Write a sequence for this structure.
């Protein structure tokens, strides 16, 4: 055996021959406490209690272990140790003081107040107890104000008051739960994190499981699945817990309705899809983040139904739920183009590009479309869609020309006659572009700006013997010729 091994053996034998007393073990605990090694201090205090100390030493050991437990944030255990010390020596003021602090951390205000008052009853003017009691009374008032604000629905003010007392009451389950309820809609991620910490203490707390599931649901669609798991877990622990049962049923219904609405949209049943998306929204009407995707999807259905104003509003609601929702910016941009709100449409597409540079090319395209839109809109003049067929364009041209032919307005005022002539001319210009497939294609591409050289077109009124006060129809413009009347006003000679 080496010298080191022999020396070590001698030490072990020495330790076995002279075991540490309860007082020695307590002193070891005190040493570690001074070093802020509270966990190790607790272990030595526990060994001291197991060593059957003298009755006079038991009370200080319990009190010292309570102090270490306080620093480990094990407040309930600290209260238990203080109660043991007080039971053995009702005059031991340190135990009352430490008990008051542990109860304050747990937000048990009345019990904490009673403990501090016991200290002052036995030691009038105790500076620590007086100072703590003053702070405790302030927190009691803040707590009262927080509860009142919460009950009237003022979550912001309730949170302000709770933050004031949280420095001293961060060990209180009830305070953490109340604060989480205040942040469900405004800061659900923070609420979820705080409630997770509570669950680490008691994973079977059904109220906390349900509340955390609700917080996760408020983080948006991605949190719905995890929320559902929380509700189900709560029901596994307590099948009769009604809040969890209602929440679980609602989130399952949400998933089912959303899938059904999406299927209807894919099947191009837009009216039915719109109604089903509305049903989904009504399941959680106050959950803006969860409904952000649903609002955006309903906007898509409403766009197809040409309900542009309602579709635009849905996109706005989607962005209120998630201000970084790229698809909502893109969709609202395209809807606003349909509404000819070109500047707004461009701003939306630029916002999308700031969040996702894949949309840079869309910004350029949007700018081009906005520029093109500032030309005369020949489609709008003929009241046809951009994808109208040649036959539809010709039919619209015929109807518009008939409506605004100057001879129909000869009995009107000069202003009315001027308007009819201008409209009639504009209709002819529109047809000169849209009635020619090559020019129409160039117009759609923005290659030409929409000016017309009025080429001759087929006369849709050929063979008619007259129209009101008109004479025969000759050639010149794509419409009527040989009009009579009109006094000194311009005469038109049109052919098709």
């Amino acid at each position: 055996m080496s010298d080191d091994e022999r020396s070590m053996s001698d030490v072990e034998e020495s330790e076995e021959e002279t075991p540490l007393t309860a007082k020695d073990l307590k002193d070891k605990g005190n040493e570690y406490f001074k070093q802020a090694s509270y966990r190790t201090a607790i272990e030595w205090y526990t060994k001291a209690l197991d060593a059957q100390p003298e009755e006079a030493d038991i009370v200080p050991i319990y009190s010292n272990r309570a102090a270490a437990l306080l620093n480990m944030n094990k407040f309930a255990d600290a209260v238990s140790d203080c109660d043991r010390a007080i039971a053995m020596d009702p005059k031991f003021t340190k135990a009352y003081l430490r008990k008051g602090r542990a109860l304050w951390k747990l937000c048990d205000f009345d019990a904490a107040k009673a403990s501090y008052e016991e200290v002052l009853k036995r030691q009038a003017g105790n500076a620590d107890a007086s100072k703590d009691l003053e702070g405790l009374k302030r927190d009691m008032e803040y707590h009262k104000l927080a509860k009142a604000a919460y009950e009237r629905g003022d979550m912001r003010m309730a949170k302000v008051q709770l933050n004031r007392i949280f420095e001293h009451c961060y060990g209180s389950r009830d305070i953490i739960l109340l604060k989480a309820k205040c942040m469900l809609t405004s800061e659900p991620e923070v609420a979820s994190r705080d409630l997770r910490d509570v669950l680490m203490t008691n994973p079977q707390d059904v109220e906390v499981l349900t509340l955390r599931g609700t917080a996760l649901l408020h983080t948006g669609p991605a949190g719905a699945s995890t929320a559902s798991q929380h509700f189900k877990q709560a029901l596994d622990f307590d099948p009769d817990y009604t809040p969890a049962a209602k929440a679980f049923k609602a989130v399952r219904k949400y998933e089912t309705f959303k899938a059904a609405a999406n299927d209807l949209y894919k099947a191009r049943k837009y009216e039915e899809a719109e109604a089903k998306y509305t049903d989904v929204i009504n399941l959680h009407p106050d959950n803006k983040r969860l409904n952000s995707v649903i609002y955006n999807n309903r906007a898509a259905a409403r766009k197809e139904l040409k309900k542009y104003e309602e579709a635009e509003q849905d996109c706005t609601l989607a962005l209120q739920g998630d201000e970084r929702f790229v698809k909502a910016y893109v969709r609202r941009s395209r809807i606003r183009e349909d509404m000819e709100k070109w500047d707004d449409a461009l701003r939306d597409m630029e916002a999308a590009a700031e969040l996702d540079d894949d949309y840079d090319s869309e910004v350029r395209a949007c700018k081009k479309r906005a520029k093109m839109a500032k030309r005369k809109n020949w489609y709008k003049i003929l009241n046809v869609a951009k994808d109208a067929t040649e036959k539809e364009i010709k039919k619209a041209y015929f109807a518009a020309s008939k409506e605004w032919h100057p001879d129909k307005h000869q009995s009107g005022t000069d202003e009315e006659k001027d308007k009819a002539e201008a409209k009639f001319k504009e209709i002819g210009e529109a047809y000169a572009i849209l009635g020619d497939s090559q020019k129409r294609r160039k117009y759609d591409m923005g290659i030409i700006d929409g000016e017309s050289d009025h080429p001759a077109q087929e006369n849709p009124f050929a063979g008619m013997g007259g129209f009101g006060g008109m004479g025969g129809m000759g050639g010149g413009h794509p419409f009527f010729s040989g009009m009579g009347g009109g006094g000194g006003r311009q005469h038109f000679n049109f052919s098709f």
Q: What stands out?
A: The CA atoms of residues 250 and 475 lie 72 Å apart. Residues 127-151 form the longest helix (25 residues). DSSP finds 24 helices and no strands in the chain. The mean pLDDT is 86.
